[in-house]
Write a structure and sequence with these properties.
CATH class of the domain at 362-511 and 729-768: Alpha Beta
Distance between the termini: 40 Å
Number of strands: 20
CATH topology of the domain at 362-511 and 729-768: Nuclear Transport Factor 2, Chain: A
Helix content: 25-40%
Mean pLDDT: 90
Radius of gyration: 29 Å
Shape: elongated
Largest sheet: 5 strands, antiparallel
Structural class: alpha+beta
Length: 867
């Protein structure tokens, strides 16, 4: 510290040379404003300021180089009045004045070095130079948005660049080495355990899910790096390996939130505050009734649907008040005041999910069951049926005959006079097929408390544009061995008596399948896990000066952080996902098996719809696609969003790339794409479908797909969770009993008490409380959400053409908002509302809303996978 002070004093003595006096403004947020005050750090900071040294800035020329070929560096200038910053309209921000001495012959500054001689880090938002002579409006703006730690934490200088964009070949000579050095620093050396101040982006296997040193039952296979368990890469943390398994990495204590991600990837203070408050509420509201039950000796099971509804309707009486008092003593009452009443006797539980707001029973209708495959929380699985009966792609040598046992006799009575062949020919048959994905795991999963079937659900497209289920097939592996094929039961619609109760159970078994596939595949694997390697590769190889970095970076916000938290408490061994979703300990392993069939180019919406047979190419249609179900809300709205993103990406990229040769010559772009394939998704590196990144179309389709997955696809998959699965009978996450057989005691009970049998077949009360608490957190928008078509700063680039193209993009999204509202009000479009009266707003952009209001809105497309 003493040497730092001496250096600072020396720097101050050198500030007396002649030159221009350039006034600047710095906006930052102090750590001790955002977090708990540290008295020692405050005293130390004041000492540095008293000695004339605190935070030093040096401008770097973008025109003139020194003998080493680097931009010339100006004299050190220090922030003025550290403890007397000017106020701003944003909470926590401090604004400081700074005066630079600049030699005119050094040209125009295009970067700067900052050195923090305080003992605490701060978040540097911007530096703005006003009235700089020789440039247009005299203003030079630097968007920083980065944590700056004390200078002794770095072995290099922290350098920030102005908000101008340059391709590598167009970079001013004075900035080239600074640009190259910054990328080297971000890549690190691949060794050691990462510390919070490290700014290193690197790759690792998913080898930190299990805890074999704690219990053998908590061991989990390493995902990634093998033929058996391929997987995308995660961010490297470098913790020590476990003693039991040298290939697995040790874990932090369960409640720790300090799992390493580069600090700039961590939640901001507003997001973290919202996240922690929501998490605390979720824990309290899920644990209180369980603790009460344990203390009172009552069983923890739902017996009637009214008991389930009591979770939402006014709360639950809590006669055992010491439990409530204990919670209130541990947690500030302000944080849980909307959960526990002031007298502490009533638990004001969960918000009423949309699916039961208008009608408590609409979820149980066949029309609503089918509609949710088009407009619910997982509208990306349904596909058109091409062959009847459905056939399996599983290896018959390993799994025997897995083809469907559904016959024409099962379904023709509900085809509105058509034969099966006619319905196929006219594209009227569809299937929700989870059979092949789950069958290899059914026996293993059924060794747990789960009792699972692999399901196929056949549906018919009626004349009014809605779907109706025709049959549900429940299949188990043959009792004599998997190689002998499947043993299947087929159930068809019934709505009265015990047959109606059986049909409701059949739909529940299908919904259980869909729930697990949604959470583990559609949601986690296809958005969260698949995007993280893009975040890492972009930061390692595309400079902040690169236009593609500026294009993609907003769509990576908070993704590494939420994924790290998921590995810590959600998808880990014994975590919330294993505790609430049917595959239990096989959850992540199952997602690894599905990753074997992951294809990047099929993640874009048009390719996905064509693959599933939900659309065919048709040049006469707006997006060159014709939907086989015209009223398919996810696809209709999604194609509008896709087209808007695609146009924006094309407009933006055309500013910087005028020929395919420019793309081929872009060294950073090429190294980014090479590493993304060879390291980020290295288990897929030899696949022939990867774009070659040789043409303008390669670039724009790649960027459009990344933005689509990180924004719109994730929004459609994530933010409807509470609306539909917040009421577990509608979308249960587990099943605990098999279908009762006629003549059995269970079948008789189904006839006499169908509600009890249904509720004790699906998700248990404990699983329900934990699961609903979890998805309430996951379904909430935070108050600092930045939506598609918005940026967190208006000056994210200095390129006027890019700003104009982005403004055009935002206006297009607002047009789409209006169109979605009109469609939701169109009574002819029955799939947009359905019996449950839940309007489809999951792909409503919300671009026009700058209110900063979060919560369970059920609408809005955030820029990134941030929850």
């Amino acid at each position: 510290m003493f040497q730092n002070i001496v250096n600072g004093l020396t720097g101050n003595l050198q500030n007396g040379s002649n030159g221009l006096k350039i006034k600047g403004t710095v906006v930052l947020m102090k750590k001790n404003v955002l977090e708990f005050n540290d008295l020692n750090a405050t005293i130390s900071d004041n000492l540095h300021e008293l000695l004339g040294q605190g935070v030093g800035f040096q401008l770097i020329s973008g025109d003139k180089t020194d003998k080493g070929g680097r931009g010339m560096v100006g004299e050190v200038a220090y922030l003025q009045d550290w403890n007397a910053a000017m106020p701003t309209i944003s909470a926590g921000e401090s604004v400081y004045s700074i005066t630079f001495t600049w030699i005119e012959s050094m040209g125009i500054p295009a970067a700067f070095i900052v050195k923090n001689f305080h003992d605490e880090e701060f978040f540097l938002k911007t530096l703005t130079l006003e009235d700089f002579p020789g440039i247009g409006n005299g203003r030079i703006h630097f968007v920083c948005d980065s944590w700056v730690y004390p200078a002794n934490k770095y072995n290099y200088d922290r350098v920030f660049f102005s908000n101008q964009s340059y391709l590598p070949s167009d970079t001013p000579e004075a900035l080239r080495k600074y640009r190259e050095d910054e990328l080297v620093n971000l890549r690190g050396n691949g060794t050691g355990e990462r510390q919070e101040w490290d700014r290193v982006y690197d790759y690792a296997f998913y080898n930190d899910l299990g805890a074999p040193d704690l219990l053998p039952s908590l061991a989990r296979p390493v995902l990634g790096g093998s033929k058996d368990y391929p997987y995308p890469r995660r961010g490297r943390t470098g913790r020590r390996h476990t003693l039991t398994d040298p290939n697995s990495e040790s874990r932090l204590i369960l409640l720790s939130l300090d799992i390493y991600v580069p600090r700039d990837e961590r939640f901001g203070h507003v997001k973290m505050s919202d996240f922690l408050e929501n998490a605390i509420k979720a824990v309290v509201q899920s644990l209180l009734p369980l603790l009460e039950g344990l203390c009172n000796g009552t069983p923890n099971e739902f017996v009637t649907f009214q008991e389930v509804l009591n979770m939402y309707q006014g709360g639950i009486q809590l006669p055992f008040s010491p439990v409530v008092d204990a919670i209130k003593n541990l947690i500030p009452i302000e944080m849980i005041s909307d959960i526990i009443s002031t007298d502490g006797q009533r638990l004001l539980k969960y918000p009423l999910p949309q699916v039961i707001q208008a009608d408590k029973w609409a979820w149980s209708t066949d029309e609503e069951f089918a509609r949710q495959m088009l407009a619910g929380l997982n509208p990306v699985i349904i596909r058109s049926l091409q062959v009847f009966p459905p056939v399996s792609k599983l290896d018959p040598q390993a799994y025997g005959n897995q083809n469907s046992t559904i016959t024409a006799e099962h379904i023709e009575k509900n085809l509105q006079g058509l034969t099966v062949d006619e319905a196929l020919k006219n594209n009227r048959l569809f299937i929700l097929d989870h059979h092949d994905m789950l069958m290899p795991y059914v026996n293993r999963i059924n060794t747990t408390t789960t009792k699972l079937y692999a399901t196929r659900t056949l549906l018919f497209l009626k004349e009014d544009g809605t779907l109706t289920p025709l049959a549900i097939e429940l299949s188990l592996p043959h009792p004599e061995g998997e190689k002998y094929g499947a043993v299947s039961q087929v159930f068809t619609p019934a709505h009265e008596g015990v047959e109606g109760s059986v049909w409701l159970l059949a739909k529940a078994f299908a919904a259980v399948n869909d729930s697990g596939v949604h959470q583990l595949i559609s949601h986690w694997l296809n958005t969260h896990a698949s995007i993280e390697p893009f975040v890492i590769a972009t930061n390692r190889h595309l400079s902040v000066l690169h236009p593609i970095h500026k294009l993609l970076n907003p769509h990576y916000r908070d993704t590494m952080n939420i994924n790290a938290l998921a590995r810590q408490a959600l998808v880990n061994a014994g975590g919330l996902i294993e505790s609430t979703v049917f595959p239990a300990k096989y959850s992540m392993e199952l997602s690894s098996m599905v990753y074997k069939d992951w294809v990047f180019t099929e993640q874009g919406l048009p390719a996905d719809l064509i693959k599933r047979g939900m659309a065919v190419q048709d040049p006469s249609q707006p997006q060159n696609l014709r939907l086989l179900i015209k009223d398919y809300p996810f696809a209709v709205d999604g194609l509008e969003i896709w087209s808007a993103i695609e146009t924006w990406v094309n407009d933006y990229c055309s500013i910087y790339y005028h020929t395919d040769a420019a793309i081929q010559a872009d060294s950073e772009l090429q190294s980014w794409w090479t590493e993304l394939r060879e390291k980020g998704h290295s288990d897929k590196k030899d696949e022939p479908w990867w774009p070659k990144m040789q043409t303008f179309n390669d670039l724009t389709q790649t960027c459009t797909t990344i933005i689509w997955v990180a924004s719109a696809l994730h929004a459609a998959i994530n933010f409807g969770q509470y609306s539909y699965s917040g009421y577990h009978p509608n979308h249960p996450t587990a099943s605990r009993r098999f279908m009762p057989s006629p003549g059995s005691t269970e079948y008789a009970e189904l006839a006499s008490n169908p509600d009890k049998v249904f509720l004790q077949t699906i998700t248990s009360q404990l699983q329900t409380l934990l699961g609903v608490s979890l998805i309430e957190i996951l379904s909430k928008h935070t108050s600092d959400e930045v939506y598609l078509g918005q940026r967190d700063t208006l000056e994210w680039t200095a390129d006027s053409a890019a700003l104009e193209a982005f403004d055009k993009f935002g206006k297009k999204l607002v047009e789409i908002e209006k169109k979605i509202i009109e469609m939701n009000n169109d009574e002819k479009l029955k799939n947009r509302l359905g019996p449950a009266k839940v309007p489809y707003t999951l792909l409503y952009p919300n671009t026009s809303d700058y209110s900063g209001v979060g919560g369970l809105t059920g609408r809005g497309i955030p820029n990134s996978i941030s929850i």
